[in-house]
Amino acid sequence: MKTLRKVLALAVAAAMLTVPALAAEAEADSAKEEVVYIDLAADGTAESIDVVNIFDLPEGGTIEDRGAYSAVRNMTTEDDLTLDGDTVTAEAGPGRLYYEGRLEGAVSPWKVSIEHKLDGETVPAEDMAGASGAWEMHLTVEADPACQGSWFDDLALQIAVTLDAARCSDIQAPGATAANVGSDKQLTYTILPGQGADITLSAQVADFELDPIALNGIALSLDLPLDGGSLTEKLEGLPAAVADLDDGASALAEGAAALAEGAGTLSEGASSVSDGAADAASGAATLDSGAAALKTAADRFAGGLASLTGQSAALTEGSAAVKEGLAQLQQSVAASAVTPEQLASLQNAASSVDAALEQLSGGIASLQAGLSSLPTDQLAALQQQNAGAIEQLNALAQMVDPDTAAALTGAAALLQANSDALTEISGALDGVGTLAAGAADLQAGFDAFSSQLSALLTGLGSLPDNMGALKTAVDSLATGYEAVDAGVAAYTAGAAQLEQSFGAISAGTAQLAAGSGALVSGTAALSVGAADLAAGVEEAASGIGELRTGSDALAEGAAALREGTDGMAQRIDQELDGILGCLTGGDEKPMSFASAENGTVEAVQFVMKTPAIAKPAPAAPVTTSAPERGFWDRLVELF
Questions:
Q1: Taking each helix axis from N to C terminus, what angle separates 238-309 and 402-460, rounded to the nearest 10 degrees?
Q2: Cα angle at 615 between 610 and 618, to 5 degrees?
Q3: 104 CB contacts (<8 Å, ≥6 apart)?
Q4: Which of 169-183, 213-227, 437-451, 554-568 is the most confident on average?
Q5: Shortest CA distance to 505 belongs to which of 418, 414, 435?
Q6: Is residue 168 part of a domain?
Q7: Is 181 inside any structural domain?
Q8: Which of 162, 193, 337, 405 is the most exposed place for a label (fewest CB within 10 A)?
Q9: From the CA atom positions of the chain, what is the Rg in Å?
Q10: What is the distance between the terminal CA atoms of the chain, rounded to a whole angstrom?
Q11: How far apart are CA 38 and CA 53, in angstroms?
Q12: Are 454 and 440 spatial neighbours (Cβ–Cβ below 8 Å)?
């Protein structure tokens, strides 16, 4: 009974399937359908193809059909059919006419392959009967290129596999629709038109058996509330949006190109800033070293100058005493009353001046030692370095942010002040030379006066009666000393002025040393910052280069997208119409599978199945027939 129910279920299912059909040429007014039965081997190979041709004949008549049949059979009446070559002729009364024909040389639209494995090993299907273990079945479907026709692309394929739940457990069937039908598990796969299948299912089996696998080719007729036009309406604005994207991408690519070019220029400028900042830092270090040496020498020179001017008072006082002694001596000579005390006083005053001049000579030597320690040969070089650094700093200030620019211009102003101080030092050094020359002249004049005084003192003893000659000598000596005294006055005034002016210069060198130290720190920080800036700008330029490459690719892609979406709504509308036609059932009638000469028919459906995998049935028991009873025997049994 169970087998009978399965056969009836398959028969009902086949009767419910709707398939495209082909119109047959017939003398009677008829509509034709075809049901193609394909018996598959256990591995999926097509073994035989039979076509059941169905004619609807409201008034009866003669039909004429085509097909390369090897044999035909009338399934409606006992009337014979005429098979002449590939032409079938039949006489039929009103109603439906069914006849079956065995096609020779026909090819199924679907190429089916089935493989069974048990515990990982491939086994023939017949060896699976009664087997136990881990079972796996691999079923594939693809178009058979040898089949001439569009049924593979026009028809969907329903694949049904029925497993006995009492024999199969842990069933794994990805992609299947599973349903419980009594004690069976029914697995259904729906393959859309034009699509192949690659199905794997597995289970743990015990005493395995498998009902025939059914594959039915049908025309889908789904009531889908879809309108291809309404779907494509939403896409109508896409080409315009893509056009805007294309224009924007092109503009972006142009902007990225300009940005990349500017970034290259900026990178070069940043590199120049970094190099200039490094040079400024190096120059500042050199300046700082020179400023420190200049301050040390200036301090030493200032000390010598202070020592020198410290002798000015003694020199002035001694010179005044000499002048006073000479005046008294002139008065005494004029009165002819020269006393030994006057001569001694004049001699003491001259000694005092001589001693002051000796100390002056020591001060001059100390001053000259300080002068020799001054880097006089480096002053011009320092001023030249300052000028170069000022130019670099002002140039850098034009390429950086306002805060950094203010710092750079401040540093340039400091360097200018230093250059001005160096100019003053050069002027002071010229004054030192003048002072040293004046001191030498003063020493020479006093030496001449001292010689005259010595001669006078020596000659006084031999000229007591010759006062006229003495008066002349004393007057000459007094007159000559006026020049020496004027030199002393000029020298002391010059030394005082030089000490005063050099005091400001000494303070300036101290400020220069302090400022150059600050300048070293600032330019060092500037050099580091400029190097970081150059590195950052170079990295940014690299990123902008990548942006340019990406924007170029985006522009190319947008252009390709624009080209690809041009007319896309119309193409999608056409493709949707085709897809919806497959799903909802198109209006076009299919071609006859039996013969192209039949043209189109009302419907064509395909029913394919494999043999069952079953254990051999047990042998039927031998029974002895009872003797046939006659009428009288049965009559006797009534009583």
A1: 10
A2: 130
A3: 68, 69, 70
A4: 169-183
A5: 418
A6: no
A7: no
A8: 337
A9: 65
A10: 37
A11: 14
A12: no
Rounded CA gap, 272 and 270, in Å? 5
Residue 120 backbone class (left: φ over 0; alpha: ψ -120 to 50; beta: rest): left
Q: Are 57 and 95 in contact (CB under 8 A)?
A: yes
Q: Kindly state the DSSP code that residue 206 receives in the 8-state scheme.
A: S
Residue 12: the pLDDT is 33
Does residue 498 contact residue 305 with C-beta atoms inside 8 Å?
yes
Asked whether 356 and 473 are in contact (CB, 8 A), the reply is no
Average pLDDT on 174-178 reads 95
Tell whether the model's pLDDT for residue 4 goes beyond 50. no
Q: How confident is the model at residue 50 (pLDDT cuts 50, 70, 90)?
A: very high
> Mind listing the pLDDT tens digit for each residue in 325-342?
767 766 766 666 667 676
Q: How far apart are CA 547 and CA 259, in angstroms?
A: 9
Q: How far apart are CA 442 and CA 107, in angstroms?
A: 140
Helix (H, G, I), strand (E, B) or coil at 624: coil
| CA gap 115, 202 in Å, rounded | 12
DSSP string covering 462-504, please? T-SS-HHHHHHHHHHHHHHHHHHHHHHHHHHHHHHHHHHHHHH
Range of the domain at 355: 256-558
Does 37 map to a domain? no
**Residue 166: what residue type?**
A
The confidence score (pLDDT) of residue 3 equals 41
- Count of residues in the chain: 639
* Dist CA 256 CA 547 (whole Å): 7
Find tokens 């020359």 and name the residue. 437
Q: What angle do CA 106, 111, 115 make, to 5 degrees?
A: 130
- Residues 172-180 have a mean pLDDT of 95
Residue type, 359: Q
CA–CA separation, 299 and 307 (whole Å): 12
Mean pLDDT of the region 438-443: 70
The C-alpha atoms of residue 517 and residue 33 are separated, in whole angstroms, by 108
- State the pLDDT at residue 214: 97
pLDDT of 244 strictly over 60: yes
With both helix axes pointing from N to C terminus, report the angle between 238-309 and 467-565 in degrees, rounded to the nearest 10.
170
Averaged pLDDT, 584-606: 87
What pLDDT, on a 0 to 100 scale, did the predictor assign at position 307?
64
d(CA 614, CA 231): 51
In whole angstroms, how far apart are CA 434 and each of 156, 380, 427, 490, 497? 121, 21, 11, 11, 12
Q: At what angle do helices 376-397 and 402-460 cross, to 10 degrees?
A: 160
Q: Which of 222-226, 279-283, 316-320, 623-627 has the highest average model confidence (pLDDT)?
A: 316-320
Question: If phi over 0 gives left and psi between -120 and 50 gives alpha, with beta otherwise, what is residue 249?
Answer: alpha
**Would you state the pLDDT for residue 298?**
66
Total domain count, the chain: 1
Would you say 253 and 554 are in contact if contact means Cβ atoms under 8 Å apart? yes
Q: What is the pLDDT of residues 6-46, one digit of tens each?
A: 433 333 344 334 333 333 344 445 689 999 999 999 999 99
The H-assigned helical ranges of 566-625 are 568-584
pLDDT (mean) for 141-151: 94
Tell whether 308 is covered by a domain: yes
Is the pLDDT at 634 greater than 90? The verdict is: no
Alpha-carbon span 248 to 254, nearest angstrom:
10
Number of other CB atoms surrounding residue 495 within 10 Å: 25
Contact 206, 107 (CB under 8 A): no
Tell me the residue type at 572: I
Q: What pLDDT does residue 43 have? A: 96
Rounded CA separation 277/400 (Å): 12
Cβ neighbours around 430 below 10 Å, total: 10
